[in-house]
Structure formats: structure tokens, C-alpha cells
Design a protein that fits this description.
- By secondary structure, the protein is an alpha+beta fold.
- The protein is built from seven helices and eleven strands.
- It has two domains: 220 residues, Hsp33 domain (3-Layer(bab) Sandwich); 36 residues, no CATH class.
- Helices cover 33% and strands 28% of the residues.
- The protein has a six-stranded mixed beta sheet with strand order 6-5-2-3-4-9, covered by helices on one side. Strands 1-8-7 form a three-stranded antiparallel beta sheet, sandwiched between helices. A two-stranded antiparallel sheet has the order 10-11.
- Strand 2 and strand 3 form a beta hairpin.
- The chain is globular and about 70 Å long.
- The model has no long low-confidence stretch (mean pLDDT 91).
- It binds zinc ion (ZN).
- The site of zinc ion has 6 residues, from loops.
């Protein structure tokens, strides 16, 4: 389970994302942390998710270098239309890179343009894990400030583990499918602000007696950019593409945190 509300607030503010992109950013961030949480016992569960899609948002990218840390960006954070905030990423590919125990594992799955669907496809086909995933972003548009206000970003990842206790795992899968269908979207579970995880567990288990947390760690949006890295990017740009905006202005803007580095 993950509560990424505070991190997503920071990200949306820094990238000045509009509501449709805020959903994708939030879901990619939470998906990343939940995949990392599945491997939290490993020493350095670092990973990256990269959606290369042909839709209006362009690339969506998230990575994490240490447990609970992450950064995420979307190429076009301001795309919107007047009809809906749920605009898919378009068709494309999702690339997942996971480092475990010093080994790099790279997988490519075709993307339907929806973070939840794509991550489930990845878990099923590349890792043979049977999972359910819910990623919820609640936001309101503030007319006065003309900005998005993120109110909630939370999610769960449920995995059906292989079990030889005589119970058919298809039956267990059916049970969870109907339980989750009855519960509906995460936003309708009636979770209390101060007890998000306890309430989420109790909803899943149907009782609060059988549900307890066995571990917890903080999550945080943190960018790895620096003046050094920005300078390298500028040098590369000056050599390879001297007509680019970056080369002409001698300014490098970080796509993750929005920080600008000037080299005059
Ligand atoms: Zn940055």
C-alpha cells in the first residue's frame, strides 16, 4: 500500500501539470513504489519505468535509486481537453528495468496507455505474478489560483502467492476479484485520513482483527539533478545540436523538478 499524496503535490507544483497529466504522474509514481515494495527485502531494489507512447503526453518516466525515493516526469504535462480529465497515454511500449542483487533485468511489454493496465500486464507476462492493482488520484481544480490541488494519491498492490495448501489458486483469484469488485474504486472505500493503511487492510480483509502492518517506510520525491550533470547535458547539446534552445540560451531546465541551471 502506498500514500503518495505529499510527493505528488510537490511534483504537480514543480512541473505545473494539469489534471490529465497529474493522474499519469501519480499513478506511475505509486506503481513504481509498489513494485519496489514487493522487493523491499532486497538490498538495492532500484528500478525504472518508461512509457514510450504515441499519445498527446509523450514519454512518461519514473525511476528510483533507493528504497522510498523516486522521481517522475511526463513530456507534455499541460495537455488537456474540455471533455474529460481521463486522457490515455496512447498506444506504445512500457520498458521496465529492475536491478536486483547486482543483476539488471529489462522487460518490454506493449502498452495500452493506462498505467494500471500496463503494470498488470508486465507483472503477469514478465514476472508471472498474479496481482491486483488500484491507483487512485483525487484532485480539484482551484478556479482562483488556476492550479490543480492534489487531495489524495494512494494505491495498493495485492499479490496471490503460489500456495500448496490444497486450495486452487484460481479459486483464490476468483475470491479476490469479487471482493475487489464489491469494494469498487479506492476513492469509495471511506478511508480515514489518519488511518489510511489500517482502513485499507481492514477493507480488504473484511475485518480489522486479522489485519496488521508488518513494515512501513517513508516515501519521498527527490530529484538527482545537479549543476555538474546540467553542465554535461549542455556540453553534449553544444556539440551535437548547437541550434537547440538549450544550446542557444545556455540554460538547462530539469524535467523532473523544474530547477533551472544557467551557464552564462
Ligand atoms: Zn531536478
Amino acid at each position: 500500500m502506498v500514500d503518495a499524496t505529499e510527493s505528488l503535490k510537490t511534483i504537480v507544483e514543480q512541473q505545473q501539470a494539469l489534471p490529465p497529466a497529474a493522474i499519469h504522474l501519480g499513478q506511475a509514481l505509486m506503481g513504481l513504489w509498489l513494485l519496489q515494495g514487493q522487493r523491499a527485502k532486497l538490498k538495492h531494489p532500484t528500478l525504472s519505468l518508461s512509457w514510450n507512447n504515441r499519445g498527446p503526453f509523450g514519454q512518461l518516466y519514473a525511476d528510483s535509486q533507493s528504497l522510498g525515493q523516486a522521481r517522475v516526469m511526463i513530456h507534455n504535462p499541460k495537455h488537456y481537453n474540455d471533455e474529460t480529465i481521463e486522457i490515455p497515454l496512447g498506444g506504445g511500449e512500457l520498458q521496465v528495468i529492475i536491478w536486483t542483487g547486482g543483476k539488471r533485468r529489462q522487460s518490454l511489454v506493449s502498452s495500452q496507455g493506462d498505467v494500471v493496465t500496463d503494470l498488470l500486464e508486465y507483472l503477469d507476462t514478465s514476472e508471472q505474478r498474479r496481482c491486483a492493482l488500484g491507483l487512485y488520484v483525487k484532485q480539484v481544480w482551484n478556479e482562483k489560483t488556476e492550479k490543480v490541488e492534489i487531495q489524495k494519491a494512494m494505491g495498493y498492490l495485492l499479490e496471490i502467492l503460489p500456495f500448496d495448501g490444497g486450495v486452487d489458486s484460481d479459486l483464490i483469484a476468483d475470491f479476490w476479484e469479487s471482493t475487489l469488485a464489491d469494494l469498487g474504486p479506492l476513492g469509495e472505500w471511506g478511508l480515514r485520513d489518519e488511518h489510511v493503511f489500517e482502513d485499507m487492510l481492514a477493507s480488504l480483509m473484511g475485518t480489522s482483527d486479522l489485519a496488521y502492518l508488518i513494515g512501513e517506510y517513508p516515501v519521498k520525491f527527490e530529484c538527482a539533478c545537479s549543476k555538474d550533470r546540467a553542465e554535461k547535458a549542455l556540453t553534449l547539446s553544444l556539440n551535437e545540436n548547437p541550434d537547440s534552445e538549450m544550446a542557444k540560451s545556455r540554460e538547462v531546465k530539469c524535467e523532473f523538478c523544474g530547477k533551472t541551471y544557467e551557464f552564462k
